[in-house]
Amino acid sequence: YGDGYFIASRSLTKQFNISPLFNGLGPAGDGVWNSLDFGVKESYPDYIRSVLWSNEQLYLFGTESGEVWQNIGSQVVNGVATFPFQRIDGATFKYGSVSTNGPIAIGGQVFFLGGDSTGQTAAYRLNGFTPVKISTPAIENAWNNALLGATAVSASYLEEGHTFCEIS
Question: Is this prediction's pTM over 0.70?
């Protein structure tokens, strides 16, 4: 959910859809959204695996890459409203998410589990739109030995004034 829209990706595609403004149930209240209210992940050919809303931006994590969109608002052209979201130029990265439930925003920063060039699962933090590896080789080996990957789930919690990211 972001900027009044419910946002969902379509399984095994590059497409994401948005609900009517402030209405996740659709105009008829039956959960059906307008099929023309969609965007397409366009910077790399991989499918969308995860969608994350943070810092007024929409993060689309593919299987091998990611890109960031923002709400620029709708315009009415020839009586038809345009799609309100647009990809931010240069806001792409060449690491995808290994898990649907892996990306998470904590304290305004975006974290995700991605695969590196060796095939190892690694943890990343976005510095702007650049992924920075934050996991150690020892942790990555433990994750890979435990077959942590597609089923990984990220969550955050606060303990004694410190914020933690938990990956299970």
Answer: yes
For residues 59 and 110, is the Cβ–Cβ distance under 8 A? yes
Structure tokens at 156: 């955050």
**Rounded CA separation 26/121 (Å):** 38
Residues of the chain below pLDDT 70: 116-118
The DSSP result for 63-80, as a single string, is SS-EEEEEE----EETTE
Select from 72, 59, 50 the least CA-distant residue to 129.
59
Centre a 10 Å sphere on the Cβ of residue 165 and count the other Cβ atoms it contains. 15
Could you say which DSSP state residue 15 is in? E
| Helices and strands of the chain, counted as H and E runs | 1, 15
- 51 and 60 in contact (C-beta within 8 Å)? yes
Rounded Cα distance between 135 and 131, Å, is 12
DSSP H or E segment with residue 76:
strand 76-77
pLDDT digits (tens, 9 = 90+) for 70-79: 999 988 888 8
User: How far is it, in rounded angstroms, from Cα 105 to Cα 90?
Assistant: 20
* One-letter identity of residue 78: N
The two tokens of residue 124 are 């990343």
